[in-house]
Amino acid sequence: MLLSTLAPHALPAPPASSGTSSPRLAGTPPLLPGESALQMLELLPQALLLVQGDRTVVSCNRRAHGMMDGLDIRLTLGKLAALGQLGELQLQQAINNAQSTGSCDSGLWFNGDLSTGWMRITALPATQTPSLSRSGEPLLIVVQLDQPTLTQAARIDALARHSRLSATERHVLLLLGDGMTVEATAAQLGVCLSTLRSHVRNLLGKTQASTLMQLLRWVGSEQALPH
Length: 227
Hints:
Blueprint: H1 34-43, E1 47-51, E2 57-60, H2 62-69, E3 73-76, E4 79-83, H3 88-101, E5 103-109, E6 116-123, E7 139-145, H4 148-163, H5 167-177, H6 182-189, H7 193-207, H8 212-219
Antiparallel strand pairs: 1-2, 1-7, 3-4, 5-6, 6-7
Helix pairs in contact: 4-5, 5-7, 6-7
């Protein structure tokens, strides 16, 4: 069942304008009509599931269907039974937490290729989904898969600008960040080992990292830029 089947309920169209306009910030774009918003949800790379408090899945988008086909998301008798490494008990606890606090975040990993991601469960106001509220407020589950290659490249670009790295130094850091040894990186770039080590020293000096290990750890993490 796709989100389009929820068109009257999941994202109601904005109310018709009355004689007086509601206050909006200057330049704020208008809200999308309900059908257009639902079509955009179908195209999102995130998996979206609308569930009841007892884990019953009311609807989901195409990305969630794809994860079900790959067994990353599993249902039993219409209820969410597994999402990544999380089983029924853990999912129910996360839903209960979202119901009491408004939202709940959890890290995820998946057995097939050991890929990772995260999940956010958000309680939706019953007034926005009246036909789905017989069993309490419905919840929206958003599943985002990590893309470490894109994230790492973006962090290296940020560091290159922040620390004014040269194009060669940035390239060296990219290769080392991908797991290459210093020797393999020198061979890849066609330079001698002493030249490569000179680039590494420049990297450490410009980024103020104490060791290459510390710098590479930063590249693969969410820590703040080294100062």
